[in-house]
Amino acid sequence: MAEFVTNAGNILVVDDDPQALNLMSRRLRRHDYDVDQAESGSLALERIGRTSYDAILLDIMTGSSGIETLIAIRKNHGPSDLPVIMVTAVPDDAYVVEALEAGANDYVAKSVDFRVLLARLKNHVALKRAEKDAADTRMRLEERVEERTRELRVSQRLLRTVFNAIPHHIFVKDIEGRYTMANKMFREFWKIPAENLVDAKVSILSWADEDMPVAIERHDRRIFEKGETVIEPEVTFQLKDGREVVRRQIKVPLRDMEGKIVGLVGISEDITHRRQTEEALRQAQKMEAVGQLTGGVAHDFNNLLQIIHGYTQIALTQKDLSERIVDHLQKVIEAAGRAANLTRQLLAFSRQSVLKPEYLDINFLLQNFEKMVRLLVGVDIDLEFRAGKNLLPVHVDPGTIEQVLLNLAINARDAMPKGGRLVIESSGFRADEKFCEVNAWESPGDYVEIKVSDTGVGMPPEVLEKIFDPFFTTKDQGKGTGLGLSMVYGSIEQHGGKILVYSEPGKGTTFRIYLPVADNASRDETEIAHQAVSGGNETILIAEDTREVLELVTKLLEGVGYQIISANNGLEALEIFNRNPENIDLIMLDVVMPRMGGREVYDQITKIRPETSILFTTGFGANLVDTEFLFKKKLTLIQKPYLPNELFSTVREMLDRRR
Ligand code: ADP
Ligand code: MG
């Protein structure tokens, strides 16, 4: 800061003539100047070194030592820094020129009117002070600029650090839609280096849909026009590499100092995983609630069906019933049987099945299942089984898992009325923390995955959302019950497993089932069932009145080597048996059949040949009236629908026991 100045100026008068020096000093002091004196050049230089003067009045002095002094002064001080006025006794032009060339600011002859000298001195002092003020101001400004620049750099660095550390995309676009800035997250996500991005438009990003850039630019223009912040709570982007991401975005108009909109700042957050997790949770909760409800209803239903079935059965044992009444009662039993099948699936959905888990290699189960699926899907469907290598054993109820796969296979078949491809594939799968979080699974760990994929009609999202709901079906009445996938879902959950599905209309469907691998402790103690169930070459007589069931069982058993003789009812079976009892190794009898039921056939046959092996089959529970005798006599029963493994092992066991 300039010091507060009160006097007219600080002046140094230099003259080797003491008289003239004193005179000049006195006169100047009278006009309010502070005056120092020097009687020689060297004294003057010394003073100048110590004190800051506004001007020097320098006499030429003897031997031109004044000019030398002037030259010495100019070495350290510029003319505006320290004005020097030469004083000459005689006005001699040669001196004047020499003095001015040596750097004097002015010259005055001693003879001149003192007022002239005063006036000139005053001007020089004023000029010098103004220059000094200006220089001070300039210096202060420079200091401030430097300080501000430093501050700016610090805040720029802060901004850049924050910009790149934020786990969201941040981008800045100008009013033409050209990127001017984008943070690291953004550039890494889009795999685009900074130098390619600057000045590029949104079309440089890899969109799956060519119309996307146009739509985004249209959206941006609205922000420019309205000048308001826009929040997009959920936008879905399809990327060229096939990824689909859901993002939450905020776009803020960017204004210049005058308030004019010059672009926008966008912040975009990836909420794909969050959405998936929420959706998975929502779905799980829904299934839980529906499951509980269904479970209660199914139980009550089951009890009622048992009563209907039981009493109808009792009514049937009455003597002297007309053919028509018998026929009617049998229809009731048949319907009750079908209803029981439905309730069984409902119970499975509500995870209330009674499981008999075994330690097994899933490939072993698939191997046997394959035979059945081949019969089921027909020739128009190309069926492929792929068994994964080195699978860890699982602890599952084989019958239930077969039923699950059967339901999936039937659905796949129904989805491919014009043929297609069905692939069933097993593999190992490790669910890591991240995967579990996204899919709302409780426990990371090792699973065995069974993938069932078809090339069928696929499903739109609104169907996909409901497929596990009990009674949800898109099939015509009588064709679908809507319980297949409910059973699948409940059973897999009951096994501690998971099911995922992916489908798109026209592109087919893939179900993925995950079964937890059996834990180490129990696996060590238990023998793992891995050897394939063997068939045989014995002859089996099957009595069954439902044609499809008869066909299926015949094919299954023939498939593993047995000779099959089939009968459509009990009477027919008895006749066949009577013709050649020695030839038959095993008889399979349906408990309920027209023209002689299983029980009566049994009584007749055991009369002739008590050692005959007889396997009973029924579509209904084993604790019912019509099967009571089986319990009393400790007879073997297998329940419909037949599942290959259960059937093969039961048949083999009975044949082996015979020996
Ligand atoms: P249902 O087969 O009796 O209709 P599900 O519970 O087995 O009952 O299946 C429910 C619905 O899910 C089906 O009606 C169908 O719309 C759909 N669905 C199931 N599996 C598939 C598939 N593989 N392809 C296409 N749609 C399927
Ligand atoms: Mg189904």
List keywords for this structure.
4 domains, five-stranded parallel beta sheet, binds adenosine-5'-diphosphate, 659 residues, Beta-Lactamase, binds magnesium ion, alpha/beta, 22 strands, 22% strand
Binned, the helix content reads 40-55%
Largest sheet: number of strands, sense, barrel closure:
5 strands, parallel
Content-based structural category: alpha/beta
Which architecture of the largest domain would the CATH scheme give at its second level?
Answer: 2-Layer Sandwich
Describe this structure in words.
Helix 1 links the parallel strand 1 and strand 2 (33-38). With 659 residues, the chain is an alpha/beta fold. The protein has 21 helices and 22 strands. The chain is rod-shaped and about 170 Å long. The chain binds adenosine-5'-diphosphate and magnesium ion. Adenosine-5'-diphosphate binds at residues 407, 411-412, 415, 454, 456-459, 463, 467, 472-475, 480-486, 509.
Explain briefly what this protein structure is.
With 659 residues, this protein is α/β, with parallel strands linked by helices. It has 21 helices and 22 strands. About 2% of the residues have low confidence.
Give the helices and strands, then pairings:
Elements: E1 9-14, H1 18-30, E2 33-38, H2 41-50, E3 55-59, H3 65-76, E4 84-88, H4 93-101, E5 106-109, H5 114-165, E6 169-174, E7 179-182, H6 184-189, H7 194-197, H8 212-226, E8 230-238, E9 244-255, E10 261-270, H9 272-317, H10 323-349, E11 358-360, H11 362-377, E12 381-386, E13 394-396, H12 398-415, E14 420-431, H13 433-439, E15 445-454, H14 461-464, H15 484-494, E16 498-504, E17 508-516, H16 520-525, E18 539-543, H17 547-559, E19 563-567, H18 570-579, E20 586-590, H19 598-608, E21 613-618, H20 628-632, E22 636-639, H21 644-658
Parallel strand pairs: 1-2, 1-3, 3-4, 4-5, 12-14, 18-19, 18-20, 20-21, 21-22
Antiparallel strand pairs: 6-7, 6-10, 8-9, 9-10, 11-13, 14-15, 15-17, 16-17
Helix pairs in contact: 2-3, 9-10, 10-15, 11-12, 12-15, 18-19
Bound molecules: adenosine-5'-diphosphate and magnesium ion (MG).
Residues 407, 410-411, 480, 484 line the site of magnesium ion.
